[in-house]
């Protein structure tokens, strides 16, 4: 029985190692094909990595570049957006996304957010919620070290320094915990999506006979608010809302 369990563990390790090998091999193959200008083949190689459930901002960025060079606007924007989900501060993805957006037909204004909520979002958006969690863990370790120093120190001055450090670390921890919670909530509630259909109507009602409000084209970014059957209620960056066919749009996350 023990041998059987051991053999199963070896098989699992082998399969896991094989998946990593093929994923890495597919990524490198895609890079080599991209360098030669074989963008369609590069897309196939990168997609083979995704099929093995391997995801990274670098992979999505490269996929976006390949589609961009194939003049496929919607997939390019879609994968740049996915790269930024994993790495919001990636300058290369932000820059290439700007170029890709210039190829879209729709010119929808972006209404800037103002007030305290914007300040909070700008701050918490600096890091992914997982990063905020790791910062909190690190601060927790610092607090523990400071507590040990405070507990064992026999010198009054050092006790005050350790106590002040503990107080400051707790304050900063509360900020990082709040930031992580806020960012996780924002991540879960915001549902960006990209129009993949060449053209689709934004309608006033979730039905085929609904009044067309606006004609949207591929590559336009929307935010999904609600789903009813085959229809999705979306919010545009200029504040307009309406319904579109679910098959016309692809959610980024």
Overview of the molecule:
The chain is α+β, with helices and mostly antiparallel strands. It has 3 domains: 2-101, Tetratricopeptide repeat domain (Serine Threonine Protein Phosphatase 5, Tetratricopeptide repeat); 116-189; 192-251, SH3 type barrels, CATH 2.30.30.40. The chain has helices at 2-35, 39-51, 57-69, 73-86, 91-101, 116-124, 129-152, 156-189, and strands at residues 192-195, 199-203, 212-217, 221-228, 231-235, 241-245, 249-251. The strands form 2 sheets. The chain has a 5-stranded antiparallel β-sheet with strand order 6-5-4-1-7. Strands 2-3 form a two-stranded antiparallel sheet. A hairpin with a 5-residue loop joins strand 5 (231-235) and strand 6 (241-245). Helix 3 runs antiparallel to helix 4, helix 6 crosses helix 8 (156-189) and helix 7 (129-152) packs antiparallel against helix 8 (156-189). The longest helix is centred in the N-terminal third of the chain and has 34 residues, at 2-35. The protein is globular, with a radius of gyration of 24 Å. It starts with a helix and ends with a strand. 26% of the residues are buried. The model is unreliable at 1-23 (pLDDT under 50).
């Amino acid at each position: 029985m023990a041998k059987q369990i051991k053999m199963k563990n070896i098989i699992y390790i082998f399969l896991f190692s094989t998946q990593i090998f093929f994923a890495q091999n597919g990524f490198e193959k895609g890079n080599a094909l991209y360098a030669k200008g074989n963008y369609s083949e590069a897309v196939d190689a990168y997609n083979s990595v995704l099929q093995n459930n391997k995801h990274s901002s670098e992979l999505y960025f490269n996929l976006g570049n390949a589609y961009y060079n194939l003049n496929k606007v919607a997939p390019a924007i879609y994968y740049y957006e996915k790269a930024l989900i994993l790495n919001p501060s990636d300058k290369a993805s932000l820059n290439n996304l700007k170029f890709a957006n210039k190829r879209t037909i729709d010119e929808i204004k972006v209404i800037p957010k103002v007030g305290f909520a914007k300040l909070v979002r700008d701050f918490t958006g600096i890091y992914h919620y997982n990063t905020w969690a790791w910062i909190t863990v690190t601060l927790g370790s610092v607090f523990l070290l400071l507590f040990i120093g405070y507990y064992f120190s026999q010198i009054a001055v050092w006790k005050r320094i350790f106590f002040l450090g503990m107080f400051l670390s707790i304050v900063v921890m509360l900020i990082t915990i709040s930031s992580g919670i806020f960012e996780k909530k924002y991540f879960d509630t915001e549902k960006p999506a990209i129009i993949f259909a060449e053209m689709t109507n934004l309608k006033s009602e979730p039905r085929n006979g609904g009044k067309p409000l606006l004609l949207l084209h591929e590559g336009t970014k929307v935010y999904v608010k609600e789903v009813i059957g085959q229809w999705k209620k979306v919010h545009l960056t200029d504040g307009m809302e309406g319904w579109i066919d679910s098959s016309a749009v692809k959610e980024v996350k």
